[in-house]
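Protein 1 of 2
SEQ + STRUCT:
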Amino acid sequence: MKTLIVGAGALGGIIGARLLAVGASVSLATRNATSAEAISASGLRVTGIGGDLSIEAGEVAPLAEYSAPGTFDLIVLATKAHDAIDVAPSLARLLAPGGTLLPIQNGGVAQMLASQLGDECVLGALSNLTGTMLRPGIYEQSNAGYLLIGELGGGESVRSERVRLWLSRAVNVKVTPNLQGAVWSKLLLNCSVTTIGAIAGLTMRAYIDRPEGRELFYRTYDEALSVALASGVRPEKMLVDPIPPGWKGRTISGEALDLWLVEILNSYGDAKASMLQDFERGRTTEIDFINGYVVDTARQFGLNAPVNTAIVETVYATTRGQSAPDPNLLGQILYPEPVGQHIARFDGEKDVQQA
């Protein structure tokens, strides 16, 4: 499959390098000429889990220079979510007849693109691979994760199996008949782990030790899960069972819940939130595709999602420079009323309600 990888950051670079190393036909599209020139000069080098490799970059150019219609059988879209929405319409014409666009962003990006471009050319995906771009063309893979792909409408297909076989030459790839459920399962953790860590400026292990941090984690998770279930999605087990033990519209305290939380902490507890890195670098965050996606979905089904809405507003304020990451923001999100007034413990069956 003649393949174009759009985005040469950590994920796109690692996949591209590993495909090139096994002799695949791969081109790389960068944001600008400066990045393309740097990668062409340095080649591609990957270290870490999965094995080290060093290889010439092959064809690498700014995305704008790829203009020949019908060139690629597969386009892997490995940019930030907002960039994916912007560039995807121009990518459709680069696909050969029967070609596939594979967006691998968090949240509802694939669904948004399918509504614009059609299900026939968009295949859904998400990634559990992690890595770091040390500089253009130089990457470190930090886990043995995988790409999860599947049809947005559910079920199995010849197309998804064909793409799995092709990309499995480079990284671990799995197919699921319930991609929407998998997307929501990851989204639940992104909403409650990544975003809260960014707002607080802390790792999950640090903020979960604070009463207000633990409370906000559970309230955010409960609300997002309630929205997912109301939309008809069946969340699929990924890292942990997406429905906490004993859940009845809200998390139920107890030993089983504590053990469930420990599983999440073992995987994410010490990681620096990617959104926090966006704050530090002055980059646009993906909040619209994480907690913002929960809020939008709730609205579509006539529901309110007040906690996630407050989180989105807090991230916007930080992006505008009106606030900065601070643990004190956790309590302000939980208790937005004047000092001395207290908001009762979240009950998903009441707070996620008809608008």
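Protein 2 of 2
SEQ + STRUCT:
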Amino acid sequence: MEQRVSSSSPAGVRFPGTAVVAVAAIVAGVAIGGAKAFVDASSRPWQVGDFRPDRASSTSGPTGTVEADETVHAFGTVATGAKGSHAFTVRNVGTGPLQLTRGATSCTCTIAGFDGGTDDRISLPPGGATEVRLEWQGKGPGGPFRQQATILTDDPRRPQVVFVVEGAVVPTWKAVPEAIQLPRVSGAEGGEAEVLVFTYGDRPPEVVSVAIDHELADRFTLATEPLPPPEVAAEPGATGGLRLTAALPSGLPLGRLRATIRLVVKAPDELTIEIPVDGTVAGDLLVAGAGWDRTRQSLMLGTVSGQKGVRTELFITARGPHRDRFRPTVRSVVPDGLEVTIGDAAPVGSGGVVRFPVTIVIPAGSRPVNHLCTDQAKPGSIVLDTGHPDTPELTIPVCVAIGP
């Protein structure tokens, strides 16, 4: 019989058939894919809550198992500046010891320690339990808060536990409006302003005292009354409230009005509530001229060289039925070296208004002083007796610093 040998194959060599090659390729692919999956699984970083069968199976002997009845606590409300706390219970329900370690916290939340202690690490025996107490402080003007803290464990199935406290920060008190703004108060008639004060304590506020720090404080009338429940309920979180009424007297000095009302209440802790008063007392007298600031109702001279001095001029106009009785004279000046000269009256227009020029001089060689109208440097002043029945006194604040 004739034997045929392929010209492309060496003599005596027989190649496997197509089916055999296919089976071998499949076996090799499965082996390579399985190896790659093992490498990926071993090297991938695990996330919180991942189940770690590889670690669990590789651990020899009994292990601890962490369990927490709750990890989120709704605290409710905490006052601004007040502190709150809550204890979470952690148990070891495993068969071996469980290691717990203090972890990271959010910016205003701290872990007070395990079982109220200061240790950063604790070991729980099987069946043991401990408390993880979180402490935090209410900060900011108010609003919702959510703070969290973490403990680390050697439980292979739960390497960390995150505890969360959430609620709302409320102020200890709130004034609406925050300040009394009086753009224009009649010097002849006075005025009235109202503020609502809300508190957030365990009981409605009890007024201890109320006063105003103004040189004519005895002429102001301050009164308080409890707010009705519907008005208190309209303010979120408030547990009580007061209506504060301030009656401004007539005859206040013309110009800038600045004062502070101090209300002391118990709710149940004693609180001192400060409400600024800012406005302008106006009447038939009006001040204008170079350096006069209408918003601040002050003469703004700034920093002046004591060697050179400075000179400026204001004008005081009087209108109304008592304009002819306006005869300003200088009662006092601050600083002492200030020179003030009042000129003769001159009618304006048809004569319904009269105007007096006022020349103000800081002479050369004046000693250094600071009256720049800041918290540290109170303003200077020019106080005039006017002869006007509605405004017998006119005070002109002077903001100036005299340098060397």
